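Fold this complex.
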Amino acid sequence: MRIAIVGLGLIGGSLALKLTEKGYPVWGIGRTSATCQQALERGAVQGCGTELAQLARFDPQVVLICTPLDQVLTTLAGLVPYLSAETVVSDVGSVKQPIVAPATELWPLFVGGHPMAGKTLQGIQAAEAGLFRGRPYVLTPIAKTQPQALAAMKELVAAVDAEAVCTDPARHDQAVAWISHLPVMVSAGLIAAVSQEADPAILHLARTLASSGFRDTSRVGGGIPQLGLEMARHNRQALLTTLRSYQAQLRQIERLIESERWDELLLVLQRTQQEWQQFPVNQPRRVPQDLGSDIHSR
Amino acid sequence: MRIAIVGLGLIGGSLALKLTEKGYPVWGIGRTSATCQQALERGAVQGCGTELAQLARFDPQVVLICTPLDQVLTTLAGLVPYLSAETVVSDVGSVKQPIVAPATELWPLFVGGHPMAGKTLQGIQAAEAGLFRGRPYVLTPIAKTQPQALAAMKELVAAVDAEAVCTDPARHDQAVAWISHLPVMVSAGLIAAVSQEADPAILHLARTLASSGFRDTSRVGGGIPQLGLEMARHNRQALLTTLRSYQAQLRQIERLIESERWDELLLVLQRTQQEWQQFPVNQPRRVPQDLGSDIHSR
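Structure:
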């Protein structure tokens, strides 16, 4: 299976490294020749260029579009003239509804994809072959998706040691709104609220006393602004749904405190403690793949 | 300086271990004889009992009340008959306004204290001598506080390798509402909101896909319910102030997303990224004391 990767950032670069390691012929298309140079030096790709037209002579069987979300459809449109009829195309965008239907119109062998992996550092320098190990890799087939396209992507997901999770684009977008996009806004709101404290002595004290609890709760709200903006723009409706539901929960907590209904507040906190444990990522004995462990999970 | 510690849980036990290590004579009062046994076995104390009256013959110069917050004043009242006139008394409660004025009425040599240290595990089993190393230890003198009482507590803070931070009870309570009590409610609200998702397929998917971002943002909301309740009960007014301010920030973020004012949302996220970096706990090169490092910070 010859694989082309368009966009050699953290995700594209890591996919290239892993697939090359597994013995697949991999070609890359980078935004700049400097990126291509680095991808070649790191042994991520066996060939690299900056023009989509260069893919024609490599004749890939699978193309992975690893550009930012708002460039996926234009990149696919630009690719179409250089693809042979059996080429499967996928993307790695974190929102699927705005992509999957129009991309499938442009190219019938398109399958939406979203590897649930990342790190704070960006770019090909931060890429690592083990980034996807044991992580969920969402695939979002729709009614028009061709079975052979889905099969090729499942092979690729297994090749990067990830776990394929199939769902429809709408459910994917709502689920990531809950666990990825809402937390960014919740956390950003926390930082914004503390920072507008009017008494400079209290603000200074708050900064001095902040410990691991504040650090963890505020971390994703202190992240890269453009990523938060991209989530909100492209998953606006699902995010608004979660924001409204979240605010209703918080108002309820506020009311319980206001009216000193302590037994009910205790019940809420007992339920959140139990619910928290329902998330595999929060279970104590989970293999810490995303902490850089070398333990294989499969 | 002879030191008595009443309440040998995580904080009391850790103070006892460190002060004994530094060569101070330390006596303990535990809730049960099993706790006393463990404190003696770990070498945290040189003597231990379960009755406050037993302190009379040890004649401590400093008594640290390390009970849960709602037992501090009754414990102090119970102690008074057994104290000599020069004994300094302090507590370790996480809220100071409801404690400091009435405690100073009961005992003029009282000083409010709050060591900013903790961990998920509770009890004397989890105690460690290095728990306070490099961490802030808040002291909250008021107008009536005796200078020799404050001086004794500053010596003790230095002895446990912590950094003394002096402020008044009201500012302390507002600052910890921002960085400790509000994050618990913000985080609990997040778990509560996700958990009431009506589509079981989306809820299952959300749990499956949740990664480090969700784990960190939800961690303190999944903590011990009684601790969250105690914070809300004893710091109710300061917490309500922060909850209202937080909700105003979140409504503003919601409005920007609703009305697609992306430039303004980007500005908000740029500011929160900058503000986040103003917190020493978030700075990358900080010595990670609270991650269990052995590096000395002073």
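The CA atoms of residues 128 and 159 of chain B lie 14 Å apart.
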